[in-house]
Every structure is written in C-alpha cells, then in structure tokens.
Amino acid sequence: MKKVRRDARSRRRKIRWKLVLPFLVLISLILYIVLTLMFPHKVEVIQPKYTVCDYSLSKAQAVFKTMSYPDTDNLSEHLYYGETLNIYNEPFELGKTDPFVGKTVILRNICDGTELVYMMESNIDRQIPLDTLTEGFYEVYVMENLVKTRLISQDVFYDEFYTIRRHNGLGMEVEIVADRDLIESTTEDQPILDKNYVFIRVTEKEVPVAIYDVVIDPSKYQTPGDNIVKNDLNVAEALFNSATLLKEKLESYGLKVFITRDNEIIDRWGLDGRMAKIYNVKAKYYIALDINGSLNANDKGARIFYSHYTSNRFATALFDAYLQEDDLTIYGVGSSGNKLGIISGRVLEDKMDVYTDVRETGGKILGAAKYSETSAENEPFAMNNPYGVQAVLLDLLFISNQQDFDLYTTQHDALIENIALGFANYLQLEKVSP
Q1: Which of 13, 97, 294, 406 has its CB 3.0 to 4.6 Å from that of 299, i.e. a possible disulfide?
Q2: What is the pTM of this model?
Q3: Of 309, 406, 318, which is closest to residue 358 (Cα–Cα)?
Q4: How deeply is 231 buried, as exposed, middle or buried, from its count of CB atoms within 10 A (0-12, 13-18, 19+)?
C-alpha cells in the first residue's frame, strides 16, 4: 500500500510542473518585452569617414573590397566650364586634343546600379554635364572599342563643386575624389582599394550663400573717358540699368545673380577689377552686356559672341529668345555653322579666344591672364583657376541708330525679359512662387 501512495504523489508532482513551467516561460517573456520597450538596447551603426550612399562602414568596406580592376586609365587633370566637367588623360594644354576626346565615359552609380553614358567631345561645354547628375556615388570608366577601363589618379585629391540653384535654393554638391584610403580598412596599414580610383559623389544641398549662379557684366568700358553719351543716353548708366533689370528677372527663377559694378566705371583688370569679382563669387554663367555705337547711322541690330572652344548652344538659346522682339534686327553675318548674328570666337596664333570678356572669365581652360601684360594682372586668381565661367557677350543694339535707340528706350523691359526667358529655357528653369 505504501508503494502505491508514493507513486501517486510522484504523478501529482509531475502534473504540476507541466503547468508551472510554461507559465514561468510566459512571465519571463512578458518581462523581457516590457523591459526592452522601457529600456531599448541601441545597436550602434558605425558610419564610414566618407559617406557612400547610405552604407554603414561594414557594408562600405564589403563593397569596396570588390573594387579591383585589371584595366585602368589615368586622370591627369580635370577642369570645369560652367556646369560641365572636363577630364584629361594628359596635362591640359590649350588647343590640344586630349586622348579622351572621342571616347565614351560611363558613370556607374553604385547606390542603385544605374549607368550614365557620355561621349567626350572637344567642346568644353560638351563633356560631363554635372547639372544633370542625380544623387549618388559614381564610379568613373572610360571605354574605347568596347574595352572598359577604370579611371584612376596618381595623386590623392578631393574637389568640391556646386551646381546652380534649381529647386528652392538647392543645387547639387558634386565632389570628385580619388583616394585609396577613402574608406577605413578592415586591417591596419592595408588600404581596401589598391589604387586611387576616381569617384563622383552627388548630393542635393543648399548652395552656400557666398556662391552665385550668374554674373552680369554691364559693358566693356573701363575708364571714365569711356563713359560715352549717344542721343543723350549715357551708355555706361544704360547698361547698368539693363543689368539691374536682368538680375531682377533672373532672380524670379530662384537664381542668385551678381552684377560686377554699381553705376560706376570699374577697370577689368587687377585684384580690384571686375574679373576678380567674377572669380570670387564662383558663378557658373556670365553674360556681358554691351551697346554699340557707329559713325554710320545705318548700322543697327544685335549680335552675340561665344568661345571658339564651346558649342553654340548657350549663345543660340539666348540670342533666339532676345530676337523675339519684332523690331529688333541682326547685325553682321555671324560665323560658319551658325545663324546670323551668332559668332564663334576666332583664335589667335597662341590658340586664345580673341574676345576678352569670354576668354578672361574662362580660367585655365581658356588661357585666362596669358594674353598680354595687361591681362597678366589677373594671374593670381585666373591663370590656374580650374573653375571657368561659361560666357557670352551680347551686343544689345546700336544706340547711334534711331530705330535701335527708340526700341531700347520704349521696349527695354521686353528686351531684357526675353534674355531671361532664353536663359531659363536653356537651363530648364521655372519661376519660383513668391
């Protein structure tokens, strides 16, 4: 009988543990959930020293470890003209055709795998259009005859560039970088990358206040003696008024616009000159305005000049829009391959553009500050400046012609509005809300 009672007690204990154990597990789980919610454990995600897409350090390291290429090509130099990036396989030389011209450049965005393809042209406004790049982190390849090579640099560099304001004060911050130590290595003293591969990182950002989008230069007149009066119109003052009105109209598209002078005459040369101001504000586009005069009262009409080393697209867009005013005519015959009045700059024996306003705002890519002893006054800020401003010189009309004079004094607002409209259409800008 005693043995039977012990077996019964044993069975009762087993039944109770079967009930208690799940209950304890449930209570523990509830306590864990409550404590986790009250005191969450933060898992620290380590970011790389240089941001790549939205990658953590470990992911960036893993991606970069795959980047080793048997075929590479060297980037010797890179320069800008307006919002165009120009790349060179050999050190830049004005008028010389670089080996990259005629080849294809491929930008591969490692963030999403998309590719952008460009044919490298000799025109300095027809290489890599930075204004069209979307946000991302791009590898740079050069391809010829279906052979694809990765672009590298012998030197480490980090270069920053801002496109113009396009969306509520925002532009694109473009960084061209080459550094084998761009991302921290997983092992000490052993970089992940085996070469200084060239990358382009593009991020939408607010453009710094000190940087402008457009410069307007009212006239080539340099000294008080050039303060010409025609038909009782002071040309220097008239050009300043035109520049002020154009600034107002361009700003309606959200652009930041700089005028090189107030209602005064300022020399073109030297650290206090108009050209120094242009480089200081780091604008991308430059419009020089001028008014013609002639001893022949029959001379009339408008014309526009651009660099020998660029395409005619920017100049044509502005000039076509400007000519929308019915009574405005064209002066001159233009140049080969262009519509009347649209003139590509001739080059001198030293390969330089003949038109000063266009040449001297172009920085290194147009040989600024090398033409003469006078232009050499701009050497400290212009000669080796990699940031060339895309420039045109627009002769508005002949103030010495009565018809042009009447047009300027009665249709001034419409004339300037057309210039702004041509600029905006070329860059696909829309007016901002008040």
Answers
A1: 294
A2: 0.87
A3: 309
A4: middle
